[in-house]
Amino acid sequence: MDTSFSIKEEDMGKDKSKLVVKGRITSDTANALNKKLTDVYREKKHVILNMKQVAFLSSGGIRILLMYYKMAKGRNGSFYVEDPSENVVNVLGMVALDEMLLK
Fold first, then answer.
1. CATH superfamily assigned to domain 6-101
2. H helices of the chain, where?
3. 97 contacts 76 by C-beta, under 8 angstroms
4. What is the mean pLDDT of the segment spanning 13-36?
5. What is the CA radius of gyration of the chain?
6. Distance between CA 86 and CA 72 in Å, rounded?
7. Could you say which of 17, 73, 75, 99 has the lowest number of CB atoms within 10 Å?
8. What are 56-86's pLDDT values in tens digits?
9. Given its phi and psi angles, is residue 13 left (phi above 0), alpha (psi -120 to 50 degrees) or beta?
10. Among candidates 48, 54, 31, which has minimal Cα distance to 103?
């Protein structure tokens, strides 16, 4: 699996975007994810994160996922992870966020 980090946005209409995240979400790359999510939520209410190609998810990445999930709910929007890698499933399961964040 390619571990170089990237985020690609796919516009899905008026209020919805999908972000395809690839690589390792570490404390350094989590900041880039945070910035991208901030930018997207300026325009959209619903965000899907495709994490099929995420090789690693740090505690900083988990914090950002949880923060945007709560923010989206507070704005009557949505935020969830689709097609997670096995690593993402395992990490979110260990911290009991899998049922909340995974679709």
1. STAS domain (3.30.750.24)
2. 27-43, 59-74, 86-94, 98-101
3. no
4. 95
5. 12
6. 25
7. 99
8. 999 999 999 999 999 999 999 999 999 999 9
9. left
10. 48
